[in-house]
Amino acid sequence: MYSFKRICGLLINNPDLYDARISHVEETTGRLEKSLVPVTCANPCEYGHPDYPNSFSIDLTSEMLGSVKPYQRQVIISTGKSDWEREIADEEGSLAMHLSSASKHYRRPPGSHGATSRTKKQDVRNPPGLFTSSEQSRLSILNGSHTSLSCNDVEESVLVLPDYKVVKEVPRSQEGSEMLWRNVLEPTLNRAGKRDGVLKSYPLQYACVILLCSHKRRDNRCHIAAPKLQIALTEALENEGYEVYTDLEEPFGQQAIEDYPGTDEERELEFLNQLQAIADSTDPKKVLILKTSHIGGHKYSGNVVIYTPQGSGVWYGRVSPHEVPAIVKTTICDGKVLPALLRGGVNLSRPKGQESLLSCSTLQHPFYTCSLV
Question: Where is this region: Disordered (predicted)?
Answer without folding.
Answer: 100-135
